[in-house]
Amino acid sequence: MYENIKIGIFYRIDYVESAKFVLDKLANHFEVKHFTDSTLDFEEEKFPVDITIVVGGDGTVLRTLKKVKTPVIGIKAGRLGFFSGYLLNETDKLIEDIKNWNFTEDKRWMLRIETTKGVYFAINDAVLQKDIKQKILDFDVRITDGTFYYHADGIVISTPTGSSAYSLALGGPIMLPNVEAFEITPIAPQFLATRSLVIPSSERISVFVNDKANLIVDGDTVDQIDAIHVRKCTRTVVLLRPKSYDFSTSIKDKIGYGRKILGNGG
Amino acid sequence: MYENIKIGIFYRIDYVESAKFVLDKLANHFEVKHFTDSTLDFEEEKFPVDITIVVGGDGTVLRTLKKVKTPVIGIKAGRLGFFSGYLLNETDKLIEDIKNWNFTEDKRWMLRIETTKGVYFAINDAVLQKDIKQKILDFDVRITDGTFYYHADGIVISTPTGSSAYSLALGGPIMLPNVEAFEITPIAPQFLATRSLVIPSSERISVFVNDKANLIVDGDTVDQIDAIHVRKCTRTVVLLRPKSYDFSTSIKDKIGYGRKILGNGG
Lengths: 266, 266
Known about the structure:
Two copies of one chain form a homodimer. Chain A is of the alpha+beta class and 266 residues long. Chain A is built from five helices and 16 strands. Chain A is elongated. Chains A and B meet through β9, β10, β12, β14 and α5 of A and β9, β10, β12, β14 and α5 of B. β14 of chain A pairs parallel with β12 of chain B, so a sheet runs across the interface.
């Protein structure tokens, strides 16, 4: 059924040996069209493939998801990630799963962030944050319902996917990937506003700052700006995961939340 | 356009003087079909009305919303509530707003909680919680995606409406009323699971406990049980509020979240 599958491989440069191991295995079963350092520029149309394999951590998968239109599979040594559903020693299983298309197709939506200087897309989050030397900033967060004000070091607007990234570190909730909502979380807010706000993904969010702040999109600083406009992007990205590695398993494995612990039978 | 409007009034017994004040004013303009102590049993079909007015706090409005099928308006002395959109001294404005149907219709959905002993409905939340003398309980929270385990004093499942009630006190996020999601928040969990889980309202949640726990629905203890099944109820309730009193205003007024503070111009 899934014969003649064409595959592309991206790898993180310090995982090159693992990547070669994967390449050798996959090349016995599928047509591997490219084998590419993930930091290099890439012209997708020159290498048409059905599936993109990423050998690296969550960060490498995240950057690859934004680079290609195909479904993406993450594979890494050591421990599984939120985005990496296969361990290196499960490469044979991966080959079987590809042949049988035995995956959960995990669609994730993105943020579209517009400023006067450009448009950016985020799978995890958009952050507006002061420099170390700047004073605490005033943020006006406007949605249909009204305006929320924060006197804080920064503001994080995240997708459900991003809820287990920086937002989680700031005290936010864990959102299942299929929740249709944004999460807004202030960084070090005065005085007690240390809670996240969860709003429908159909909203358009504008954030105005009283000074220029750094705009950080999925971890990369892209701009210095005093206003952004955020909404759900129409494009989705697709992760393929083994059916056994669902979201609750990844949350339990990666951060221990909701895992059985001593005292409750585990 | 809105002539011959029939009105029912519920009041909290210690607000009876305020309620009489409202009754006298409204009776000059509308047909008041009943004037009822909110704690009494009530047969709605005997008193058909278009609008139900509640003189009392959020708790009284909440109980009334579950008792009647009409839209509900909350009015109280002192300060506004999440559910009470009019102050007592705004009764004349309320009369004009009724005549012109000048309201935001605020629809809220409910939880349907099923146990072996009965079915219950919650506007805010369903809580499973141990007695003081009981040991810490083991909760298995099952959703489509998998099972989360908590070793804790209790578990709160809340609607977006309930996110500003008990869940908020436990550290949960603030959810806009129109978010299509449940919030699950553990009470005093071992060891570091002090975060909320946000899941789509299309999910069905089952909670299993290793001992009987108190089931508390919107603040009332209704059962001792070791399993509950929760989903979104098809019935909605309708609050009428003045257009100026939106959700963000109520959040800023009631709990100070997102309000301008000294340091950001307010």
